[in-house]
Amino acid sequence: MLKKLLLLAMFPIAAHAQDYKKIQQKAIFVDSHNDILTACIEKNVRMDDNLKGKTQSDLSRFKEAGVDVQIFSVFCDGTQQNPYQWANREMDTLDAVISRNPDKITLTRNFAELNIALKQHKLAAMFGVEGGHMIEGDLTKLDKIYERGARYMTLTWNNSNNWATSAMDETLKKDSLSHAHKGLTEFGKEVVKRMNSLGMMVDLSHVGEQTFWDAIHTTTKPVIVSHSNAYTLCPAFRNLKDDQILAVKKNGGVIDLNFYSGFVDSTFKMKENKFALNHAHELDSLKKQGMIQEYALSILADKYASEVQDARPPLSSLMEHLEYIVKLAGVDHVGIGSDFDGITSSPKGLDDVTNYELITKALIEKGYSKKDIYKILGGNILRVLKSNEN
User: Across-strand partners of 72?
Assistant: First the structure.
């Protein structure tokens, strides 16, 4: 009798496990921000090789994870002399992967091509350019990156450009920013209007508050915030305040959750700074070899995994951000923008792309319907993508 009761007790658990895996596979899963292209260049690896233990993503793991649409970040930090050339180099990296694996991945430039890729069971790839400095103040270059497959551009990264100010600069350099140059300039507003006309989503992650509001008041299309969280829960300078979250709701846009521990847990940054200080000699050595700070820290995080593990927040902390945004703005305005391969730490359990299903499991446990889970996992960002098309 006891054995029978134990079996009955176990059955709902097995059924539950099957449900979240089934929902994960059935959903059209979209991640709006992944930095594997930069990681491949920085770490001198190829995305279509087995990179387990080296990166958080690779082509086979995207398939294993049930990722259907990946928007690949095109990134440089603003210190390069030719950022537009660097952007094209990263796009070339993905094009090479696609040419070697035409049966697994394809570049999609619109919603119709995306649907064809889904029917063919290929990974639908797009570019998201992370930083307006990469168009070098030239609308023609904006047109060209759109032609190459960029379907959003983040107006700034942490660095401001000559037409938009960043969250980092508006927060940390606010006294040195003159009011006349805070936010979008007239040219910056022209950039937003051109993006609207092209059908390129305006991304407001990383931007300063004044830039955010100038863009919201300029755009005629729904925006995205490709990888950001809620400021109220974690007051990092580039998370969104409540009035910004509500503005994205009113605009019809979507906020995609960032997995970086420092944007999830307010205590993490202090722990990361201590880690960097403890390994300052190795960090400096890697940077002298030409590696940028984020990827140098990533190498050290892999090397000293046990130290990093203790500092990571629980998955429940990320889910708190999701629920906060849902309660404030509604389930139609939240999605996934992991920032995998651009971050040094993520919540416990979310070690790489194959762990996305843990979010689905947590959503089921919190009582979300299949319909709402499908929206969060990809439906919302696809709606915004389609709305931006001419």
Answer: 34, 127
